[in-house]
Structures are given as C-alpha cells and as structure tokens.
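Subject: complex prediction, re-run

Hi both,

The earlier run crashed halfway through, so I resubmitted it with identical inputs.
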Amino acid sequence: MGRGLVIMVPYVWLLLFFLIPFAIVLKISFSEAAIAIPPYTALVEWAEETSLAIRLNFGSYLFLLTDSLYAVAYLNSLKIAFVSTVLCLLLGYPMAYGIAKAPQAWRGPLLMLIILPFWTSFLIRVYAWIGILKQEGLLNNFLLWLGVIDAPLAILYTDTSIYIGIVYSYLPFMILPLYATLEKLDDTLLEAAADLGARPFKAFLSVTLPLSVPGIVAGSLLVFIPAVGEFVIPSLLGGPNTLMIGAVLWNEFFANRDWPVASAVAIALLLFLVVPIMLFQYYQGKQQEAAKQ
Amino acid sequence: MRRSSFVLTMMAFGYAFLYVPIILLIIYSFNESRLVTVWGGWSTKWYAELLNNQQMLSAAWLSLRIAAVSATFSVVLGTLAGMAMARFGRFRGRTLFGGMITAPLVMPEVITGLSLLLLFVSLEQFIGWPAGRGMTTITIAHITFTMAFVAVIVQSRLVSLDESIEEAAMDLGARPAKIFFVITLPIISPAIVSGWLLAFTLSLDDLVIASFVSGPASTTLPMVIFSSVRLGVTPEINALATIIVALVTTGIIVAGVFMARQERIRKQDEQMAASSSA
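This time it finished cleanly. Structure:
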C-alpha cells in the first residue's frame, strides 16, 4: 500500500500538471480565436440538443503554413540552436577532458567552478553581456585599445551575440555529462594504444572519442532542445531581424492575444522536438543502466 | 604534449569566458557613473538606490516566498518519484512516468509556461479554481518543473547506493516506512539538500514560466529585472547581481565545508565500526 502511494502522488501530480496541459494546448490549437473570456471558441458543442458536434478548426495550422514568418522562425531557431550546440561542444569537450585528466584533488573544485555561475541568476548573467558587447562596450574598447580593430564592431543585437549568450549560459550542461563519461574512461585502454604504437592524437581519435559518444549526445541534447525554444537570450541580445520561435510564441500570446495560433506554434515546436527528446530519454535510460552495473 | 597545452589553453579561455562577465558586473556595481562603460570613481550609491527601490524589494520578497514553498513541495514529490524510479523495478505505467519525469528537464520554457496557463484557465472555467492567477499558480508551475531535477538527483544517488543495508533492516523486521526514515533518508539527505537548493535557485531565477502563469498583482523579481533591463542598462542591477553572487558564493563555501566535515565523521564512524567488529 505504501508502495502504491509513493508512486501515485508524483504520478497524479505530473499527469495533472504536465501531461493534461499538453492535451489542452492541443485542443485550443484546433479552436478559433474569439473575442471572449477565454479568447477562443468552444471545441465541443451540443448541436440540436442530442447530437454532439466537434468542430476542429485547422485554421491556425494553415496560418502557420501560409505565413512565411513562422517557417523562417522555426528554421532560424533550429540553425541557431545547432550552431550554438556545436560551439558548446568545441569549447566544452576540451574543458571536460582537462577536468577529467586533472589530478584527483583538483577535479572537485574545477567542477564546482563550472557549476557556480549556474547558481547565480541566469537573467543577470545574460544582462552582463550587454555592457560587454555594446558598440561602446568593454569588448570594443578593449579591442580598440589593443589596436586589433580601428572602428568598433557591431556585435550586440546580432546573431553572434545570441551565440555568445547561448554558449555562455548552456556550457555547464555540455560539460557535466561529458565529464561524467570521460571520468569513467579506463586509462589502461590508452596505455594499450600507446604500447601498440599509437600517437596520443591517434589514440584520442580511435579510443577516447568513440567511448565518449554517450556524453557528447547527452550534452548536445541538453543544449540543443532548450536552445530551440529560447526566449530570454534572443530578446535581450538579439537584433530585431533575428526571429526565434520562442519569441514568436511569446508575441502571439502576449501581444496578439491569439491563443489558438500560440498553441499551434507550441504544438508544431513540440513536434520538431519529439525526436530529440526521445533520443534524450533513450540515452538517459542507457546511462542509468550503465550506472547500475 | 602539444595536445595538453591546447587543452590547458581551452580551459583557461573557458573559465575566463564564464567568469569575466560576472567579475565586470561586480566591479561596475561600484561605479559612480550611470554609464556602464565610463568609470566615474568608486561609489556604493547603487546599493542605496537598490534598497530604496520598493518595487524591486517586494518582488524579491514574493520570489523568495515562492521559491521556498515550491522547493519544499518539489523535494517531497521529487524524492517520491526518484524512489519509485530507482527502487520499484517495473510497475504499470513506468515508461510514461519516466518520460514525464525527464521531459521537464529539456522542455522549452515557453511551451511549459503556455500549457500550464491554459490548464489554469480551463480549470478556473470548469471548477472555479484557481480563481485568478498569482502566487499559487506560480508555485504550482515551479513545483512541476523543478521536481524533475530533484527526482533525477535522488534517483542517481539511490541507484549508486548499496541496497543490502535496507534489505538487512527488512530481514530484522523493520517496516518499509521505518526503513525509509531511519536508513534511506539519512543516506540520501545530501541529495535532498542539493535538490532543494537547486529547486530554490531554479524557481528564483525563472522568468518565462512565471510570466505566463502570473496575474497582474504578482510580479516576481526576474520579471522586474527583465522589464528594467529592456528599458536600458541600469546600474542598480549590477548591485543586485553582486549581492546575489556574494550570497551564493558564501552559501557554497559554507555547504562545502559542512559536507567535507560530515564526510570525515562518516569515514571515522565506518572505521570504528570496522575495527570493533574485527
């Protein structure tokens, strides 16, 4: 009985506050916007007292297809998330590798230093970049002083500053799973490779890299999936021409007050993410299995 | 050897990348000038302005209350969920349960926020609860998305734990509830503490979900920061950031020292137990 209760309580909570909400989003995406409270039409109606009429309205989805704004925003989000993930991997892999290879006593503090910024406000850390990347900001002043550039660069309010913001905010999510797999790596395999005459770089490519694939996949998904729907970073650091789907959904909801279209945007975004999310769960299940052994 | 110098360079660059913005924020919080890029001499006037900003203070108070309540509930629910996943083997609906626990970790916040708001609106329409939106709805939303993090932490701690102690207690006739409170809970308490702190921080930091599910009368601290940052750079935010960084760093150092001491005591106990049984 106690066992049932342990499962039931969180189960019911998640059903009620995580799963059912998606059903409601799906439902509202098929209704029409209306001037009412709440501002959409009812989906199910009793027609002529006895027959139940269900009116599915695909208008919101057609709207997403006909207006190129949405396609551009979805593609742009995928592009930005993909590039940021690659950049995170390029910076995060050597860092995770360095921490995993550091002397035992150093690993804890080095790892702590990766996690520490995460405990301070995300919003404020993104905001810090505004002062650095501005036209008359600290980075431009520094580069001018070094003599690398003659005129200040426009970095803030471009895609570049979005990349910087996303890599900066999500880097720990890349490093932690990578470190977890690299740390478990058996050093004797590398010694064996060296004995057989492999140079360090060759040994890295043929031993370390393939064995760290689970960490690469887990870290990449942890960065990629939330980055696609990112709202805060593009709206603080991005330019007016950068369209990301998270901001489109936000505007559809808060500025246009079109709940059905906002819901349709969310459902379409979710469909884009279903494959990556399932991959994430698959790899997480695998890692937990590995932890059990 | 060249590879290792490459790794060291990347590490130095990476740590600088993570910390330079924070250090600059702290330095510029003591800047006399209103302009972020012009140094006008040392001053603490932005701290004084921050303490006089009534809107910011009441938002901070609301955020702290929401974070404390939601972290507490999310620890209870997340621990139960982590126990179920780590200890109960296969049960009906396990796949769905596991999916619902891990999905909030990666779900984009705009989707979570929108779906919860639509749920609250529908609930209000049909059963009249929650009437309006505010602290209650924000708290429920935060419990939902933070309990996933607690569940994962507790679950991984339980998976790496030796089950034989619990089994021994069961053999000696202890009831499941007694086993949980006397054996399991003390062992997983570090995971629960870090889960609570993580849930607290996530709740304190959340802008997107709170914006969706809050009513006009409930403005959390991130919402105030976001709107003031959008209006332009304000040095008060630098002061606020410095206070947060100082509190977090102190907290982590204290927690680190405390945990190291706990670990030492535990090791001593184990040694004593081993030597007395030998």
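The mean pLDDT of chain B is 86.

- K.
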